[in-house]
Amino acid sequence: MMAEHFNKGMARNIYYGGGIFTFLLLLGLTFDTMLILPERDHRENITESVAQGKEIWESNNCVGCHSLMGEGAYFAPELANVYDRYGNGSEETFKQYLQGWMAIQPLPIEGRRKMPQFNLTPEEVNNVADFLIWTSRINDNNWPPNKQG
Amino acid sequence: MKFESQAVAKPYFIFALILFAGQILFGLIMGLQYIVGDFMFPYLPFNVARMVHTNLLIVWLLFGFMGASYYLVPEESDTELYSPLLAKVLFWVFAGAGVATILGYLLVPYAKLAELTYNHLWPTMGREFLEQPTITKIGIAIVVLGFIFNLGMTVLKGRKTVINMVLITGLIGLAVFWLFSFYNPSNLVLDKFFWWWVVHLWVEGVWELIMGAILAFTLIKVTGVDREVIEKWLYVIIAMALITGLVGMGHHYFWIGPSEYWLWLGSIFSALEPLPFFMMVLFAFRMVRQRRYEHHNKIATTWALGTSVMAFLGAGVWGFLHTLAPVNYFTHGSQITAAHGHLAFFGAYVMIILTIISYSMPIMRGRLQGNSLNAQKVESMGFWIMCISMIVITIALTVAGAYQIALQRLPGDAEALGFMDTQAKIVPIYWVRLLAGAAFLVGLVVYFWSFFVGGEEPEAATAS
Description:
The complex is a heterodimer. By secondary structure, chain A is mainly α. Chain A has helices at residues 8-41, 48-59, 82-86, 91-103, 122-136; strands spanning 67-68, 71-72. In chain A, helix 2 (48-59) crosses helix 5 (122-136) and helix 4 (91-103) packs across helix 5. The longest helix of chain A is centred in the first third of the chain and has 34 residues, at 8-41. Chain A is elongated and about 70 Å long. By secondary structure, chain B is mostly helical. Chain B contains 15 helices and no strands. Chain B is globular and about 65 Å long. The chains are: A mainly alpha, B mainly alpha.
């Protein structure tokens, strides 16, 4: 394959030609994805509370233990579908559950992985709940495979 | 050393290795936290340990890339570095900012750190691998720009070789894609979509250019093979890296919102991603076989061959293992991802930096033909212990992932085990991983020890 007839100029052309072509292809696909995304992420439902929730999620580094849509750390449960897991289809139920759960952290069980007490206000927990509920409704091609995430 | 200014690489390499040691220590702590969940809680919660582990990795690899560039660009350009002073100043700026950031993670709660650094003015924190305060992110951008300016000016006044140009292209790409770390919209899907423009386009894109250039440089030096031949290979390898890797980003777009066609595109292109790594193996071994002379720094050659093999296994084989959408549906975000991540980073990026360090450090210490035979023997021992330990870690995590999927993902809603119950079942395998991690640390200590072996001995003039 590295015979005489294959010279450096040809190799360089494959690099520049192939690289630029693929990059343009990526840009085109990205542009197309941007057109389709609004129907899949339902961005019209990103309320002030959802946006606040995302910021609280980030400023406490939740992704350092949990995964969200499969990305993050794998030390604690997946949370993109936590609403499906504990909400029973009711936002009210889920929010009450989350308020209670956040309040009793860290659980006093020796040897168990611990979630720190973040001392969030009830309103902040509500924001996080709204963020997780919105996240659970993104069209993510039906991932994860089941409720356990 | 051909040019005096190449010596600015030295502090970069030394500091990189210190951070590497820190990374491994925090890795061990996390390995234990996987087993004893509340180990060091609440003083060092898992998320902090993890942030330190991964951020140290990123920063020390950047220090390594910078050291490698400062060493090889003047030699390739056949001229002194444009400004050794700028290189030294940027070293201290970057080292200071890096240490301050890590201390920030360790000493104050993350939310407090976000508040102290005015994250609300321009929120960029709290995303995986991009946890750095915005001010640190700006600092990284400035340091990288100054670094590229320095190298660019060097290349402009000197010889423009293919290795130089590929390396610079890779570094410019690194800087450009870093800019996406500043984009953090409220829309999680957009956030994630462009987050990958940093993460994927770095490790499965432009970093491969940097790796290819460093590998090509080292191979020229230790084999004496004609530059024309090596440059031709380099072009083809990085062409394959970009052609497969750019749209290969699609394998990250399966389950985070983007359209269904990414399932096909991501699967097809990423299935080809092992190709450039496979070519690197062929390349490295062929060049060594065709070598024109025996360089007495044998261990540098070992590292060069090793990085090609381990990168192929980690990035190529373990990547392909779970890259097809129907498989990835079950493996995504499981311990399989962790298995792949560990071997790929170690093989491709850790080892390429250890390669260039192994080649250039002895030269910078006045030993043109490498360290003494005794030192090389010890370094070789470190090489094997680290490589084998990392393979064991990878296999353990792969088994852990497969078990996790079998218990937690494959069964239907009613029968599937919950996350925490599944983790409890995996504990014996996490022990294997932890022990292999401890063995890795031993390998690292042996490797460090090799720097101090036979310091006064004459160089290995008697080698075959």
